[in-house]
Amino acid sequence: MPDAEGVGSDEPIALGWYVVALVVYVVAGYFLKSWLLNWIIGPLFLLIALYLVPTWLRWLTTMGRRR
Amino acid sequence: MSWAAHEFENYFIQKHVGLKASFLGIALGTFAPDLFTKYFVYAADDPAKFHRGWPGVGFSHSLMFGVVFAVVILAITRSRNWALGVLIGQWAHVLTDASDTAGVMIFFPFSTEPVTISMWKHAAVAGRYGDAAAYYSSLGAVWDFFWLVMAVLFAYQTFRHSYFRDVIVPADPRVWGWLHRTLHLPERALLLIYRGLLFYGLGRLIAWFLYARFGAKTPFQPVWGGPSYLPAGNDLSDAGPLEVAIRTSIGGVLFFAFLWLCWQVFGRRLWNRGYDPPMTARGTGAHAVFH
């Protein structure tokens, strides 16, 4: 999950996660241009990939454990 | 038109304005000229004329449009940081777009003469994908890369988390605070929004460049006025360089005289009625917003 803090750094998200997100964005964007390479999803992709999706997955995991 | 350069410029500008302007304001300003018009440009009969000319929506690529937009923002929000951010961002977009063959009516409405240095062809006539392929086959790709290097070399401080806390949020505590409270976004999520434009610029630069090489398979021709595989003919003016220079100079004098007059009549009063975020003076950083 992309909340692993770099040791000795004030960065809340490690640099490696940004690289992973960039690779995913470029590869997916190449094939889904009109969906991803636009002014709405493009600037928000980092938020979606590194915060909203992990938060949602954590929430799903927590709900699963409770059941 | 420029593509990812508009995103990278935001951080370069931010480095120089610091607490004086809102980063989100700058971003809105750089988006503004194309925000409500770009969608229709690709469907127009003459995309270049519609995008940059008059009659058309070329006024959105003038300095006056930025002034009007900033005055409206200042009148409604009273935020000097937002008004200044929008103005600087929009002006940066206009000046950057003077690089393609269609040019910009920089001093509209006092001069409708497009100003251009014709580094690459305005290729909206080829549709969005064709436009992207042409741009990333021309000096436009180099231009984007140049601004990426400029941002990395001279504005790398702005990418840091500490810069976000100490400058970005204090310069615009209302909006960042609103995003934090209303959407329940923690600080690291807001940091991702802030860095999102850099990410988007880099991502689309790479993706479109790869598309141009392996999808559209257009030749990379980074020469002045390229790419040469596209036909010429989207220069919006028949005037010679001297005529353009004279008309633009007259337009510039009239434009700045008009600005001075507006400042005297209502601009100064509007500015004085506005406010600077209190945190920029106190220097309390992001703590007042997030804690």
Characterise the protein shown here:
- The complex is a heterodimer of chains A (67) and B (291).
- Chain A has helices spanning 15-31, 33-36, 41-66.
- With 67 residues, chain A is mainly α.
- Chain A has one domain (15-66).
- Chain B has one domain (5-290).
- In chain B, 64% of the residues lie in helices and 0% in strands.
- Chain B contains 14 helices and no strands.
- Chain B has helices spanning 5-17, 23-35, 38-41, 47-52, 63-77, 80-97, 127-135, 139-155, 161-171, 173-182, 187-215, 241-273, 278-282, 287-290.
Q: What number of domains of chain A?
A: 1
Beta-strand level of the residues of chain A, as a percent range?
under 5%
- How would you sum up the global shape of chain B? globular
Beginning-to-end CA distance, first to last residue of chain A: 22 Å
Instruction: Give the radius of gyration of chain A.
Output: 14 Å
The total strand number of chain B stands at 0
Range of strand content of chain B: under 5%
Instruction: State the end-to-end distance of chain B.
Output: 42 Å
The overall pLDDT of chain B, averaged over residues, is 93
Oligomer: heterodimer
Cα-atom Rg of chain B, whole angstroms? 20 Å
How would the blueprint of this fold be written?
The complex is a heterodimer of chains A (67) and B (291).
Chain A: H1 15-31, H2 33-36, H3 41-66
Chain B: H1 5-17, H2 23-35, H3 38-41, H4 47-52, H5 63-77, H6 80-97, H7 127-135, H8 139-155, H9 161-171, H10 173-182, H11 187-215, H12 241-273, H13 278-282, H14 287-290
Helix pairs in contact in B: 1-2, 1-6, 1-8, 1-11, 2-6, 5-6, 5-12
Keyphrases for this structure?
heterodimer; A: mainly alpha; 3 helices; globular; B: 291 residues; mainly alpha
